[in-house]
Specification:
This protein is an alpha+beta fold and about 110 residues long. It has one domain: Alpha-Beta Plaits. About 30% of the residues lie in helices and about 30% in strands. It has a four-stranded antiparallel beta sheet with strand order 2-3-1-4. The protein is globular. It starts with 12 loop residues before the first strand and ends in a 14-residue tail after the last strand. The N terminus is likely disordered.
Length: about 110
């Protein structure tokens, strides 16, 4: 079986943001439109691989495509959820993708 060619982006890396939310749900609801607009802009600019909240509502996973951890920190610092205090904590880390199956990724409308 022939293996698909790996797609490489020299100088680019995936940074995972494991974010937890504060318990103040009304703050998140008020900032959600601005946060989602920011995510849409990052996605269009090629800086966001995927994002979404956890099913329990306690946080979210965001995957950035950047040139460095420092750039991911700048992306996070400008996020309306970070600026507005919705994120209680964020853990950023570089992620090496060994295998991925894009066909299994489904997005909500």
């Amino acid at each position: 079986m022939r293996q698909p060619a790996a797609v490489e982006h020299p100088g680019r890396m995936k940074i995972v943001n494991y974010a937890t939310y504060t318990p103040l749900r009304e703050k998140a609801a008020a900032l959600r439109p601005a946060h989602r607009e920011y995510m849409t802009r990052l996605h269009a600019d090629g800086q966001l691989v995927a994002y979404g909240p956890f099913a329990d509502g306690g946080g979210a996973l965001l995957i950035y495509e950047t040139g460095s951890l420092a750039i991911a920190q700048e992306i996070l610092a400008a996020d309306p959820y970070q600026v507005g205090g919705v994120f209680a904590g964020c853990r950023l880390g570089a992620w090496d993708v060994v295998k991925a199956n894009p066909a299994l990724m489904r997005s909500a409308p």
